[in-house]
Design a protein that fits this description.
Helix content: 25-40%
Largest sheet: 5 strands, parallel
Strand order of the largest sheet: 2-1-3-4-5
Distance between the termini: 92 Å
Strand content: 5-15%
Structural class: alpha/beta
Number of helices: 6
Shape: elongated
Order of helices and strands: EHEHEHEHHEH
Length: about 160
């Protein structure tokens, strides 16, 4: 071992470096992450759902409030708990999203453990072109439903008029 290694003050630089004409590009680096608004009143459920979705690369705006400004957030998807704080605020929010031309096409996933209410509302759910995720569900079911909803965007609801 040379105790005094020499450093070349003029290192050779290849004047014609090889450049790959077809560099590999990570496809996720070219896309903007999808934005999801998550409205869920149960803190533990909301935290678990948000963590799973963020781990999948989504930007998640999570809230316990159904009447946050979804229009301003411009999400690619809304995940909506139907019975927020035991009330029917989720149904009201769904109606607002559907009636507003600016939010009508945003895909919606309804989450609820109220199976009887979901069965009763099956015609409305079909007409509004929304997906349903019955609680309890596995996070893998959430992820698959999110992918499906985003792949089929925009939603095409029938605008249901009162009366």
């Amino acid at each position: 071992v040379d105790p005094h290694p020499r450093v070349d003050p003029h290192p050779r630089v290849d004047p014609h470096p090889r450049v790959d004409p077809h560099p590999r590009v990570d496809p996720t680096a070219l896309t903007t992450p999808k934005r999801i608004v998550l409205i869920e009143d149960d803190d533990d459920s909301r935290a678990a759902m948000q963590a799973a979705l963020e781990a999948d690369g989504y930007l998640v705006n999570a809230s316990a409030d159904a009447f946050g400004d979804i229009r301003r957030a411009r999400p690619d998807l809304v995940i909506l708990d139907l019975f927020i704080h035991g009330e029917t605020a989720g149904w009201q929010q769904l109606d607002i999203l559907t009636m507003d031309p600016a939010t009508r096409g945003i895909p919606v996933i309804l989450c609820s453990a109220a199976i009887a209410s979901l069965e009763h509302a099956r015609p409305k759910i079909a007409a509004l072109d929304v997906r349903v995720l019955q609680k309890p569900f596995e996070l893998s079911e959430l992820e698959a439903t999110v992918e499906d909803a985003l792949a089929s965007a925009p939603r095409s609801p029938e605008v249901l008029r009162p009366g």
